[in-house]
Amino acid sequence: MSSHHIVREKQEPALLIMSLEGFESENLGQILEWSPTLIVNEDIYELVDSMGIKIDAVLTKDPHFYTQESTKLILSDSEPLEDALKFLDGEHYPAVNIISNEFSLKDYVLFVDDLDIVVFIGNQKIFPVRSGFSKWQSAGEEIKVLHEVHNLNTSGLVELDEHLFITEKDGFYALTFDQPFIFISETI
To answer: Which of 64, 108, 112, 142 is buried most deeply by CB count within 10 Å?
Structure first.
């Protein structure tokens, strides 16, 4: 790709940074490569700003929060993550990458049908999949199912422990189950 490649607004997933704790700066650089819309939680605004990264919006309780020029404030009283997802959905973003230090299923279930969500925690990539999901993966990769699943059937995976699997060989693995979606994690 040429460095002159023009990215249309909202073509790339937005990036929401709730925390950078335990997240590799090299991985952050890769996510920022395509200049996504960047929203940060007020707690880490100064850290991200000090990296020289353009911030598009800040999640804050303070309507007078001091930011870079032309940075939008997204006011949030109690649930910054939920308010950010509501904002992105309302602005018709199709997808969001989220960097955080915690994952709770309840934070995302209301948005799975409207946004393609990927959550990065440390070296884990967490995302929802629908029954019939399949993906090519190298042998020996860990796949975790992050909550209870009804009638889970797998192919291409060996179960190591409850909810923990490893790909048995280079190739496709697949998951089928009896619910609208499940969240899984892979190592990045």
So the answer is: 108
